[in-house]
Amino acid sequence: MRPDTGADYGTVRSLARGLELLRVxxxxxxxxxxxxxxxxxxxxxxxxxxxxxxxxIEEGYVKRSVSDDRYVLTLNVRALSEGFKDEERISMVSGxxxxxxxxxxxxxxxxxTPDGGSMLIRESTHRFSSLSFNRAMVGERLxxxxxxxxxxxxxxxxxxxREALLVLLRRDPxxxxxxxxxxxxxxxLEQTRSxxxxxxxxxxxxxxxxxxxxxPVFQSGKVIASINVIYxxxxxxxxxxxxxxxxxxxxxxxxxxVALNEPVE
Length: 265
Fold this sequence. Notes:
Low-confidence stretches: 1-9
Oligomer: single chain
Largest sheet: 6 strands, antiparallel
Structural class: alpha+beta
Radius of gyration: 24 Å
Order of helices and strands: HEHHEEHHEEEHHHHEEEH
Mean pLDDT: 85
Shape: elongated
Distance between the termini: 36 Å
């Protein structure tokens, strides 16, 4: 009888071995390796490795080279990652960074990525913060031109992307007036870039009680997200928030960038 592991389902040993075999093959130059190299790399018996390889060949993820008898990854392996995007990766690496930021500032924070003319909250510490006023925020959308998170992204994205965003925002009933106000956009860009962070001092009519500061998050020199600290305007002024929370927020953004720019194994 199989011992109780406490899990609803036991692990599938052959699947785990097959995935490890793919990882080892991927680490070899050009995704090519001999049977002996794969056996050595996985620590599995050659017979087991050969059986796994035959299964992967049948499924179209590996082929056997007729020139040197080595095993080679096929393009089908790339299809396995097509559904995985940078947004998913940043969500995965942001948890510890946001948790540390919460310990330092106590106010809740959100990690946001662009979604059309708004910012999608992908991770948040609202549910963990004793100062939170909205517990369930993951999946919510924030208007780009009215919130600190949106402004941080908008002001640091490439010029061509910003123009494309403005086309969308000019059709947004909530943000159209600001998107069509050239002076507002110019001032927003100048102020945000000169300070290095964005802010919302109760500008969003739906959330007048809320203030926030935010910084952009870059990957390989391109902004892909923003991270904020949210507070109540009656409790904290903008100047106080910038003085007390900005250093920790900037460091959180830096830590995210380091994690995102590390090679994926």
